[in-house]
Structure formats: C-alpha cells, structure tokens
Amino acid sequence: MDSPDQSLLQKLAASRIAIEAIEPVVDEGRFAAKTIVGHAFRVEADIFCDGHEILAASLLCRRRGEESWRELPMRHLVNDHWRATVVFEEVGHHEFKIASWVDLFAIWRMDTAKKHEAGQKVSLELQEGRLLAEKALSVRTGGTSNDRSALKTLLAELTSSPSEGDALAVLTSDDMAVLMRRLGTRTNLTETDKAFPVFVDREKAGCSAWYELMPRSQSGSPDRHGTFDDVIARLPYVRDLGFDVLYFPPIHPIGSTNRKGRNNSLTAEPGDPGCPYAIGSEKGGHDALHPELSTFEDFARLVQAAREHGLEIALDFAVQCSPDHPWIKQHPQWFDWRADGTIKFAENPPKKYEDIVDIHFYSRDAIPGLWYALRDIVLFWLKRGVRLFRVDNPHTKPLPFWEWMVEEVRQVDPGVVFLAEAFTRPKMMKRLAKVGFSQSYSYFTWRNTKRELTEYLTELTREECRHYMRPNFFVNTPDINPVYLQTGGRPGFQVRLFLAATLGTNYGVYSGFELCEAAAIRAWDWGRPGNIKADIAFVNRLRRENPALQQFTNLKFYNAWNDSILYYGKHTDDLASFLLFAVNVDPHHPQGAQFEVPMWEFGLPDDAAIEAEDLVTGQPFTWTGKIQHMFLDPCQRPYMAWRLIPPGAWQ
Amino acid sequence: MDSPDQSLLQKLAASRIAIEAIEPVVDEGRFAAKTIVGHAFRVEADIFCDGHEILAASLLCRRRGEESWRELPMRHLVNDHWRATVVFEEVGHHEFKIASWVDLFAIWRMDTAKKHEAGQKVSLELQEGRLLAEKALSVRTGGTSNDRSALKTLLAELTSSPSEGDALAVLTSDDMAVLMRRLGTRTNLTETDKAFPVFVDREKAGCSAWYELMPRSQSGSPDRHGTFDDVIARLPYVRDLGFDVLYFPPIHPIGSTNRKGRNNSLTAEPGDPGCPYAIGSEKGGHDALHPELSTFEDFARLVQAAREHGLEIALDFAVQCSPDHPWIKQHPQWFDWRADGTIKFAENPPKKYEDIVDIHFYSRDAIPGLWYALRDIVLFWLKRGVRLFRVDNPHTKPLPFWEWMVEEVRQVDPGVVFLAEAFTRPKMMKRLAKVGFSQSYSYFTWRNTKRELTEYLTELTREECRHYMRPNFFVNTPDINPVYLQTGGRPGFQVRLFLAATLGTNYGVYSGFELCEAAAIRAWDWGRPGNIKADIAFVNRLRRENPALQQFTNLKFYNAWNDSILYYGKHTDDLASFLLFAVNVDPHHPQGAQFEVPMWEFGLPDDAAIEAEDLVTGQPFTWTGKIQHMFLDPCQRPYMAWRLIPPGAWQ
C-alpha cells in the first residue's frame, strides 16, 4: 500500500516537537491577549518530544506586519513547562510564536560526561562532538560573527592538543556549551503553526482612577444650566482628590419628543432637561454639543485645562437616539419600522422607553453605512482630543460591530481606550473584553463579603480572563446605589473606596460619592462635614507612588483569621514595592484578627523581624514574628495599609 | 475615512452570535475527541449574542467526508450554556459543528404575551406575528412538508377568524411555536468556523480486560519451548477467569548477537532464549514468527480458537531491532552509524543495551521508506486477524510517526486498537493519546492510597484528558513489581485487582498475578492454594453484566469516613445500573467506616429506604437512612460491591 500523500507525511514529520498549552492565548488566537507597554509579558508553553532528547526553545516576537522577529531564549522550568518574558516598548498590535529544536550538542555533552564519569572510553565520542562543532561552523543558524570566531578558536585548540583529557575539557566546557547553544544546528526545528496576537495598550488602559461629573450640574446652582467653564472651575477639586480621568455622561443635544420628566416621570415639565441618553434633536446628534453647555471652542479649552490638571477627559458613547435625532430623517433605513409605518421605540415588554429609539445594526443599508457613521462619531471626538470612551450598554449592540469599530479606531490611534459599561451575564462581559474593550465594568459593585471578594478577585486575577479582561471597579453608578452603601454609613463608603482602589488598578466613583451620598442632586456642598475626601486623596496617592499598585494580577490574599477582615498584598516581581492592606468589611462593628506577615515572600523564617511602614501615619516600625494582631474600628478607620521594606533596603 | 475591506466587514458582521468554550474539543480541533460506538456523546458550548434575543441552536454531525449533516437541536441549560447529545452508530472518523440563530418568532411570542398580560393593546403585534409566519412559509429553512402544511392550516384559521382573542390564541399557541422553531427564518445564522473531529472507536477500545501470557512459557515444563498449541490449550483457563483480551509479548525471531542471559546477565548461556524484545535474526524480523513457536498456520488456528473462547489476541509492536535484524543489511540507512563506522547500540549512558539497536526515524531515507515499512508490519498482522496492538515504549519514537501510522491503519480498519505502553512524563502520555492511541498505560500502578487514587482518578475522569485518553490500569508488568504487591500479601493483590477492574474500564494483569506472585517463572502451578482466581472471575463477571461498569467517566467518589477506605460508585445516566464499591486499601488491618448511601442520586430524602444487593453473596437487603456502617477485614475480603435498585424497579 502506497500512501497517497507523501508531502503530507513530510510536513507532519517536520513537527517532531510538541508545543502546546501556550499562554497567553485567547480562544486559539482568535482574539489578542493584552498587556501594557513597558510591563513584563510572560509567555509559557509545554514543549517536549520523544525520547530523552534535550530541547532548546525560543520566543519570537514582533509588531504585527513587521518582517523580522526578535528572538528570546525560553527557559525550562519543570515537567516540560517553559517560560520567557518580553517587554513590549510600543503601543499597538504585536504577535508571538514559539520555536523549539533538538540540541544535539547538549545531548552529546551530557552523555559523554556520564560515560567519562563511569570510567568508559570516550575517544569516539570526542570525535563525534568535534564533528558537531565543525558542522555548526559550516551551517549558519544563529549567533554573531564573534560567536563564530570564538568557536573557531576553541576548535583550533583541539587541533593543537592531542591529549584526550584536554580535548574532553575543551569540548565539554561551559564556553563551548554557550557557543553551541547559539550556533549549533537546529535539528528538528519545530514552530507553532501560527503566531498569536498581543495588543499592547498604553498605561492608562491598565491603571486609571475615574471621577464622573455631569457638566450641566456644575453651575453651583440648581437654577442655572452648567457650562464647560463651570467644569473648568471644578478641575482643581478633582485633581486634588487625585483622580486622573474625568468622565462626562453624554454632552449632546437632548430630544424633546416624549422627553422624560424628573424622577423618570413620563411627561416633562417645561424646563426639564431630559435624560442625556436621549441623544439628538434638531440641534444635532452624536457629533454635536448640547447648546447650553457651550461651544467646541469651550470644549477644546476644557480638554486642554484638564490636561494641565493631570486629567484626561472620557466621553460617553451611547448608541441610541431620541426620536428627534437627525439620522431618523436622513437614514430611516437604520431604524426599525413597524407594520403600521411607525418607528419602533426601545422597550423591554411590558416597559416602553418612548424617548429613545434603538438603532438596528442589521437593517437595510446598516452595513456599511451605519457602521461607518458610528465609527466616525468616535473618530470625530478623537480628533477633538478625547482618547477615552465609556461605552454605554455595549452588550445590547452586536459583538462584531465592536470588534470592527475598535480595530478601525486603533488604526488611527492605538492608544484609544474603551470602557465597556456592560452589567450583564458573565460570558458576554468577557466576550466584550475579548473583542477589544480595554476596560470592563465588573460585578465588584455587588461583591461585599470577604468570601465574595476573595472568590471574585481570584477569578479575575488567576483564571484565563486575566489575559484579556481588565475590570474597572466602580463603587457606584447613577443607576446603582448598592445596599451596602445605603446601610453602611460613612465607614461603608470608606470600605468600598479602599477596596476598589487597592484591589483594582482601574476604579471609579460618581460625583457625590466623596460626600457619602448617592442621591442625584444638582448642587452639592462639596465641603460638607463627614466627607471622605481625605481617604480618596490618600488612596490615590498610594496608587501613584507605589508600582505594586499599578499591577492587577499580582494580588495575593493572605491569612487573617476573621471572616470580616479581608487581608491582601501586592508586590512587584523584585519585591522592591510590597504593600499590605487590611479592610474590615463590616461597617458596623470593630473587628480584630491575628494575621500572617508574609515573611516567606522574602525567604525569611517565621520568627524573623521585618521593617515596615504604616502608610496612613507614615510611622516606621518592626514586625517580629510572622503572627501579628490587628484591630479595625470602622468609627476610626476601617482599613490599614502597610509597606514592607525588603531586608537590606531600609533607607 | 473609508474602510479598505468592506467584504471583511460583511463577513465579520455575519457572525453575530458567539459560540465558544465548545466541548469536547482537543487542542482547538487539532486532534479528535474520542467516543465509543453506540454511547452517548455530549457536546456543550456557550452560545449567546447581544441584546435580549432568544436564540436557537443545533448540533450538526456527520461521518468525515460525507456531504450532508445530521441536525440535532441543542438545549439551553443555564448561564448561556447549551448541550446536545448524539449517538454515533458507526466506527471511524466523524465531525461536528454548531449553528445558532436568532429566533425572531420566539421573541415576538414572549414579548406579545407580556404585553397582553399587562393589558396593553397587541393588534399591531398580531399583524407582525402573522407576517413572521407567512415569511417562514415563503423562505424554506428546515422542517418537513407536513410542517409546512400544518403551518398553512394554522394561518388559514387566522384568515377565517376576525377576533383578536382568537388570533392571539392561535399565534401564541404551543403548536405554532413548535412549527416556527422548525420553519422560522434563521436570522443571523452563525456557524462555528470549522468542524471538530471525533473518532468513534469500537467497544473494545473503551472496555477491555487484558491477560498477558508469554507463549514460549506455556509448555507446562521449564525444559520445553512453548508452542501456539500450548497456548490454545490454555484458552479455557483464561476464558474462565473472564478476560477478553489475550496479549503476547513479541513472538518474532530473537537475535543472537550480544544476546542477554538469564536475569539480564550480559552473556547468554547456550540455550538461553534471549529477550523477546531483541527482535530479528537471520530467520526474519517483525513479520516473522519465532521458529520454535510454530507456523503461521498454527497462528491462524490460535486466533480462531481464541475468538471461540471470547478472546481477542493482542500483539506487541516494539520498534527496535536486534543486531541481527534483516533490515540492518537491507536498509543500513535506517539506523545510526558512528564516526568509526560501527552501528550505534541502544544506550542510556552510562548503561548500554548491546542486544538492541534503535531505528532512526529521521535518518536518510527513513521518510517515507522506514515509515512505510513499519506501517506495513502492523498491516501484515492485521491481515492475520490481529486488531489489538500493545505498542512498546511509544514515547521514545516520534509523535508524528504515530499520528501518521495510526491514521494509515485506520484507513484500512478503523476498529484497530492501539495501547500505548508509555510509562513516562505526564504530558507525553497525554499527547500520545491525542495523536491516536486508543488506550494508555497510566500511573495507576503507583497510586495506592485513598488520596492518591482519588486525585488521580478525578484528573482522569473530570479534566480535559477525559475527552481523548483512556487509561488501561495494569496491576503489574514484568518490569514493575510494585512495593504494594511485594508487601501486601494476598489482600494486596485482591485490592489492586478490584481497584483496577472497577475504577478502570480497561485493565490488565500479567500471568502469575492470579497466584499472588510477580516473579518470572516459566512453569506455574495454576491451581495452587491462595490464588485469587475466584476474585478475578467475580469482578470480570460484574464488568460484563453491569452497563455502569462499561463507562469510565461516570465514576463518583462518595463519603466514607476512614482514610483507608475508598468508596465510590458508577451508574448509567438513567440510574438503572447503579453500583457501589468499597475497598480497604490497607492490606494489613481491618478497617471500619460510616458511609453515605447516595440516596440523593435518586431524589430520595436522607431517611429513605432503598433496596440493594450484596453482589458478592447475591443477598438482597434494604438500607434505611443515608448513614450506614461497613467493616472490611482484609483477611476475609478487602472489598465490597453493592447494586442499588432504583425505587420501583425491584423485580
């Protein structure tokens, strides 16, 4: 019997080495894994082949579209598992693949050493080792010309030295091994059959503190509509709290047809401003400004002023229209029309939302016309200096639209950050992150107990989603006033703030939160007693000053023996930045606990002493012994923050 | 800005529905998932799309190479997770894919019912529902012509009945829903972008009891070389023990160069038979019979006689040669030659195996010449009635070779079963199963304690490897005489037998095991006292008579509060076959334990009564209450086996 396809056999045989369980790979490479520019990106895989061969492996990386690959050696850890770490220096699309080969010289070296140690004759082995080295010189595989010169010099020593012992010493030397690792023939070279995508985001995608503010409510008076100049006047306040993103709900014209009144009433009184999510009027749509807020010139000044205060503006992108949106007349085919010829309002039967009509992404002419128009809205604001978009309810719009749109925008500016405001089912939340959203709303808002927080954060930082989903821990939203905040008083607000800002690298608050209020009021007294502005400024300063807090997946939970005390730490790989946090999640009672100072992370014994700093008071002190005790009274302060100082690093 | 690739946009947009986390899929479909002909094969996936759409989904299956697909509806379970179960009726390659679409009529039905219940007017909705039904008739999607007639009849009722209530009743009826599920337009139809392979094996690949026997040792006398007729005479013995596979180590000519003597001594005495794994002499190689064992005619009689005793012959396939193998002269380029012109013997430095030379799979002319020759060896024995191959040390031969060879053989007979005798690192063991081996040697041989067995069996039956790896639990091998057997006495042998045969669906023993001996002796007294032949016959009968024991992944561990008592059960999906087992893994001491009778599996309360049968004594009895007590004295019998009788099924 002859095989019908010998070329297939040849191709198959060429993949002698198994390279599998590659991480991070999202859905077989269908989606990109994510990382941050300048951060360590770790690639791991199982690599092995038949027999007792010794393998070598390399990680190959490049920007998408580049010709040549950058090669980094991978290191065998244990049980056929290999690792390499790369740092991407540019924002944008990258890719990686893995190559592995049989290192015949390493095998020869190990076997020859064993035989020699067992007292066996190795003269034939020496001859064979030398042939391998000579072949390396004749076949150019890798290494530099310096490497080749060095190898030639070593081989010359062999020619001049007739003694078997000398030849053995030269051929099995470490120098020889290093050179042959670089220059040796790559026998049975096997590569992954595809490259895996990585998207490298700018720093802000991975670490950001958001403050929401409704521009029209910034006049300081319930009787006057706020303007961008009012917002500019508020910038020092937001800067002093330590935030770095200032987010506005929609700032576009609001429809008047079926406008909702106060408290969501069905009919608006004259002068009621309407819901800012009912976008569009005769004054324009998503690319227009609400006339009372001011002009594009004012907006440009605001963007610039914010920048000077260390703040980036984030805009809302809400894909829905009021019945007065210009598109309805210009492009009726982008909307749903009913059998009686009327437009279809948004609804969730039996509820009706008659101040909003949904766009239909698959209606006549929607592809490409509508899709282009929506993309162009984002590009419109990008041109006006906005590089952060909070996308409203993306889970009610098609996934392929987001995948395409985000990619289109990144062609123009790979640094644009999209936050998915999707409070929905878990798989949809994850898929939105896969298709390209840089940050995601999360279930943090509803996780209150030690157990809930531990389980959820373990999922987010340890499971596969850590490769593509970056949660943004909002403590509240205008729609959501969690029971915990309603009942926890001031300590409840402190707890949720501290958890959001230290468990999460991305987090956010809606204005009013700092006053321990969640009601929607137009004009706050921003200095009123009982506020937690000092806590906010403190935790935002910690986040800026400590690199450990700028990473998400480095979170570790440690033991504190009290079910109301969540105790955790974050540290950089080199341990230079090492923070510990404890939070009493019971806002009503003082709680105490014995807890473990993680001496072992520094290789210290349980009875060691370690220097630390109380970050709230700035007080340095020494912990002696692993087991310590803490006491957290919510009336005083429901959290603790310490910095551990690596032995020998005390300044 | 205009998009450069509008067709890409169209294509992307066409995949509105996310279909992910598909199981069983092995390495993205690079390898086939495995199942057994006639068994239930369960496919699951996460399926969802944006918004609040109602989806429908289908599993599509076919034999590889067929044109048309068989379609089965998938069912939504919870949290966007869907399932369908299919039974493949033929051995060989199959494939499946998944399709999903938006079911507009189902959405219409739900929304309209909600509006009607809320007292809203639905006349416009009725008009829209009717349009959907009429469209289904005009666009042929699925369903039969009977379905279409039935739908037409229902629509005719609408024409004749002017009342809104009647129209609502017809359009929201269950009949209408069923018809529209079949006939309705498949909006946003999305399919997985590839089909996933499934290999359907015959029953023996999934459930088999192996008995090893060395033909040359079957003469009943240490002085005479056994023949196939001696083996034929032993068949009733093996059948009475209840085995169904009779496996022989290599039966080929043995080399004389560097032949090993008794107890692995380096020089053979005259008359020493040599190691059967040193295959090949001037009498022939892998396609020849050892002359003293007899002829191919005898072999044919043996195969036939075995079949009549309910036994299938399994042969050893050992890819290595003695220095006298004919291939060395015929095809010197298939072997490794050293710098001094001598052939390279097998070695594991500093150990040398000079009675064996290894084949080199990547040497000159090995591809395709050598690969074809090896494949043809298997086909040679297949022609002579052998459909089971125990492959010796497959982990020291290239993975691509096995993948290709197994596939080639399956082109001729998809029912050929390959058992990988690979005691090696875990990832290589799993990869061999992926590339095509039907069964795999496992670490069972070294897992003795309750904890070890629970962890290992949980991995094998719950983790991803369950989709492609079928372990074969050998209790011993000629190389391996586990400490547990050396020290556990007769109860030790009973324990290991019982565990292997009830935890595993595939298991095996080497002859002598039934005598509680592991020494290699040529002529046993097969009836000697202290044997465990009755235990073997008992457990093999249980395996044959109880369908629950013919499945592997249905294993469940239950609670018995004693760390020496392993307590577990197996049942069919319908609970009709429900077995419980308890084993005292401490061969030296009696052990007792309270344990839980799994009343909950039958939906019974903890204080219920359930009928059971002691399978050892055949005694029926009743357990009242979930908590019971057992006592296992290894001197009596270290195991228990019970059958639970589902309420109402007592005969």
UniProtKB/TrEMBL annotation, chains A, B:
Residue ranges annotated for the Glycosyl hydrolase family 13 catalytic domain, each copy included: 212-543
The reaction(s) this protein catalyses: alpha-maltose 1-phosphate + [(1->4)-alpha-D-glucosyl](n) = [(1->4)-alpha-D-glucosyl](n+2) + phosphate
SMART domains attached to this UniProt entry: Aamy
Region annotation Disordered: where it falls in the sequence: 258-281
Record's protein name: starch synthase (maltosyl-transferring)
Any one Gene Ontology molecular-function term assigned to this protein's record: hydrolase activity, hydrolyzing O-glycosyl compounds
An annotated GO BP: carbohydrate metabolic process
HAMAP family recorded: GlgE (MF_02124)
Gene3D superfamilies (alphabetical): Glycosidases, Golgi alpha-mannosidase II, Immunoglobulins, Phosphotransferase system, lactose/cellobiose-type IIA subunit
Enzyme class (EC, first level): transferase
Keywords attached to this entry: Carbohydrate metabolism, Glycosyltransferase, Transferase
